[in-house]
Amino acid sequence: MRRSTALVMTLVLCLTLVLGAGIYAQVKKDEKSGLDRVEGSVQAINKDKSTLNVIQSGATKTTWKVAYNDQTKFTMRNSPAKVDDLKDGLRIVVLGKYEKDMMTAARIDIRTEK
Prior knowledge:
The protein is α+β, with helices and mostly antiparallel strands. It contains one helix and eight strands; from the N terminus they run αββββββββ. The chain has one domain (29-113): CATH 2.40.50.320. The chain has one helix at residues 2-25, and strands at residues 28-29, 36-46, 51-56, 63-67, 73-76, 79-80, 90-99, 102-113. The longest helix has 24 residues, at 2-25.
């Protein structure tokens, strides 16, 4: 009985380490700035909390929680923009710092619609 419990605990620990590392590994580094980079589509915007959810492009479809603040620069196709230009379904690129379960955006570039 003790042996099977130890085996199950070991498997759970290994699975947790692998999945946790796998999620972080999906955050790419931007070569120019060295910041973390996530590219995807806006799923939900909460302007009261200054957050948005981004569904990452590609096969994983991972959802990232992104926080923005008064230091975040907004651009639309590399021209100045503002937070009000963000809309559900738009494709964006977020550059920032990923920590724990949220990315704090230094820059959000609005690209195109889905």
